[in-house]
Amino acid sequence: MKILAADDDEFTLELLTMMSERLGFSDFTTALSGKMALKLLYNGNVQFDCLLIDVKMPDMDGIELCSIVRTIPAYRNTPIIMLTTVKERSFIDRAFKAGATDYANKSFDVVELGSHLHMAEEVIVAQRAAKSARATSNGPRLGIGHQHPFELCDMVPIEGVDGLIAYSALGNYMTQLSHSGLGGSQIMAVKVKNIEVIDACASSEERLCVLTNVADAIGDVFRTNGYMMAYAGNGAFVIVTRKVNRAQTNDLQDELQKRLDVKTPVSDQLSPIDIEISLGNPIRPSTSRPERILKIFDRAIKRVESQVEKGNDHSSQLG
């Protein structure tokens, strides 16, 4: 794995280099500024697999650098680990919204750094496997004649939507929240109820358009509450937001559906594609007993899927 680290502190870069080599990651390049890092990225002589970026750098801070990196086609999905001593939620929110996939504390520990780098390595392996699978897939889907490069269960990359990040990045985001930040958050899931019908009848571009419209609508509706979200595959989105009560859930679902009714895309046959959604009741992460974040995400998805199966959008109890 080829790693590029950007930090304005030479000692930090030396320490990172030494620790990474101990962990088996010897292909390590350093940059003393954001501008120097961009020069290496734009140069194109080396395709880096993972970026380590210090949040606080002069001239161009790490969050600005991260957002610019995401505009470079070759680095749109590259794992980016932000390095910082800052734990305020506003910084964490900005970093992940800019495109960070992970967030590491600068009081470095070999074991902790290793967990972040190995996680990035797993993401890279999964991305390459998915790319290879799409390249070798063939044959029409469901007899309709549409050939999708992505399976319905795939976490399709959706671009250009504010607050939408990768599923694994959303898990890392939740892990970084303080006790108070975690306690002040809730996890909800939105499910496109007729996603199987859409998948069978729509082209890949139309299906992506549907998912993008749903993500846009979620952003519009949850903006005042503050939110981060990720697409989990199978027409489901996971949302991390400020506290929402059960009565608000009904109103939020109604508002989401209204916005989607207006944004209805048109198929290749010039017929409208109706989008029907369900919003699950919120789950409150426990601050007294630890629980794996991705397990909570799974619970939120199963909750809304259960509601869809029962034909009752709000039959579950608060978690």
From TrEMBL:
Transmembrane segments: none annotated. The keyword Phosphoprotein applies. One of its GO terms (biological process) is phosphorelay signal transduction system. Residues 183-319 form the GGDEF domain. The keyword Phosphoprotein applies. InterPro entries: Bact_response_regulator (IPR050595), CheY-like_superfamily (IPR011006), GGDEF_dom (IPR000160), Sig_transdc_resp-reg_receiver (IPR001789). Keywords: Phosphoprotein. Residues 2-121 form the Response regulatory domain. Pfam families: Response_reg. PANTHER family: RESPONSE REGULATORY DOMAIN-CONTAINING PROTEIN, STRESS RESPONSE REGULATOR PROTEIN 1. This is Chemotaxis protein CheY. It comes from mine drainage metagenome.
